[in-house]
Each structure stands twice: as structure tokens, then as C-alpha cells.
């Protein structure tokens, strides 16, 4: 039996398409480090169901691997790291601020 690894609930905002994360107080945030880090598999499944029910706000909700960091959850997979950076076009979205 595989051991459960910590997760965050992530999705895309319905209107803007931005990557969003579910917080412990049931808000959606665009900042990964504000997401709820879930360390229990049963709780993770409940949070995912809660996210999937919010069809007017979020689409494509899923559980993404994460780890505890000094400022909150940090992604552990390159795909999730990439998603925290926003669109790959430097002239739009979050990456415009990095130029």
C-alpha cells in the first residue's frame, strides 16, 4: 500500500483561466503558498469533492503533490512549479512582473 503524500487542491478559475488553489478557509487564491496543505488522504478527497462542486468558480480541480515549506506549501513536481508562474508568454499574466 502506497503512503499518502501531502497535497493541495488546484484548479483553473472559470472566467480568467488562472491557476487557483483552495485555502483552508474555503477561499480560492492564485498563490500556491496560501493553499491548504492536506496531509490526510480522506480529508484530501473531501476537499477535492468540495472544489469540484464549485463549478461556477473553478474547473478541472485535482490534487497536486506538495510539501511544507518555510512560507507555506511548495510544489514538488515540475508541472506544478510551472503552473505557479502563470502563462508562458512574458507579456501577459504573472510572468510580466518577472521581466
Automatic annotation (TrEMBL):
InterPro entries: DUF2849 (IPR021270). It holds the Pfam family DUF2849. It comes from the Bacteria. This is DUF2849 domain-containing protein. It comes from Gemmobacter nanjingensis.
